[in-house]
Amino acid sequence: MSEPLFLKPVFHEKLWGGRKLETEFGYDIPDGTIGECWAISGHPHGKEQVVNGEFAGQILADLWNDHKELFGNPKGKVFPLLTKILDANASLSVQVHPDNEYAEKHEHELGKTECWYVIDAEPGSYLIYGHNAKNKAELDQMIESGDWDHLLRKVPVKKGEFYYVPSGTVHALNKGIMVLETQQSSDTTYRLYDYDRVDKTTGKKRDLHIKQSEDTITVPHKDPKLDIQFKEVGKNKFTTFVQPPISPFFSVYHWEIKEPAQLHHQIGKYTLISVLSGEGKITADGKDYDLKKGTHLIVPATIDEWTLSGDLDIIASESGEN
């Protein structure tokens, strides 16, 4: 019998983190300023274990290598996606991520295109999203002179919004924002600006990566044109935020479940599911599994169809690379 793969999150302390992963999601998190919940991860920096069934205790990365049938016999060397919940209790550094080509050459891992679904945002919250430089020369000059007020684009943000962040995009979450992030499985970040903050462990300012940032920033910035699609089936609402070809690496969906819904894989061969709120069940191969806020799982390729029931708010994703 095929079963969904339920995963145990891994948590990371961050200079900008807080405690909302505990207070809002009920996670048993370590002491300190915890900024990231790595919810579904095969990356070496977030070695997640399966907690149920035949593969209980096994690492997702090992399943990818040893049980290709669970993922539709993919060709890629690594599990390609990474799902996180981020709690920005303070502003993150202004940063940029490289594309696959640059990351492979310089970092020996995947590039990093990502996206955010805004779980919550305090009044007045904003993102850094893009920049105002018209060309490379102007970009370099504004960075060198530290003209951040004119260079960086500030975008007001609200709960329930979605932002697609291709590699090469200058960006930052700021204070008071919580998001679910879907991204390529990469941990490469180039810091462009960090508000001159001092790391409490080292007592020094955190490293910046100006050359790498200048190498990888897309100039001029252009907001991606998304084809967001909505569908209502009975009391259920299904939103497709992004999918290939606009997003070559993943598709991301928002499912609002109020009555039983039969679902199947769409563009991919397996599906990642994160429950943002509510309670319910997933039924697969005639067996029920409980779902609640903060649950994360993969529906493997060995399950063709499944049913969601209850009152559930879900972000799901699929890899665009099979």
For the secondary structure, the number of strands is 20
Biggest sheet character: 9 strands, antiparallel
Mean pLDDT: 97
- Based on CA atoms alone, the radius of gyration comes out at 20 Å
Order of helices and strands: EEHEHEEHEEHHEEEEEHEEEEEEEE
User: Outline, from the CA principal axes?
Assistant: globular
Could you give the distance between the termini? 24 Å
What name does CATH use for the topology of the largest domain?
Jelly Rolls
- Share of residues in strands: 35-45%
CATH architecture tag of the largest domain: Sandwich
How many domains? The number is 2
CATH top level assignment of the largest domain: Mainly Beta
Which residues form runs of ≥5 with pLDDT under 50? none
- Alpha plus pi helix count: 6
SSE arrangement:
Elements: E1 5-6, E2 10-18, H1 20-23, E3 34-40, H2 60-66, E4 81-88, E5 94-96, H3 100-106, E6 114-121, E7 126-131, H4 136-145, H5 148-151, E8 152-156, E9 162-165, E10 171-172, E11 177-184, E12 190-193, H6 210-216, E13 229-233, E14 236-242, E15 250-257, E16 261-264, E17 271-284, E18 287-292, E19 296-299, E20 305-319
Antiparallel strand pairs: 1-19, 2-3, 3-4, 4-11, 5-12, 6-9, 6-11, 7-8, 7-10, 13-14, 14-15, 15-20, 16-20, 17-18, 17-19, 17-20
Family: Belongs to the mannose-6-phosphate isomerase type 1 family.
Active site: 191
Domain Mannose-6-phosphate isomerase cupin: 245-317
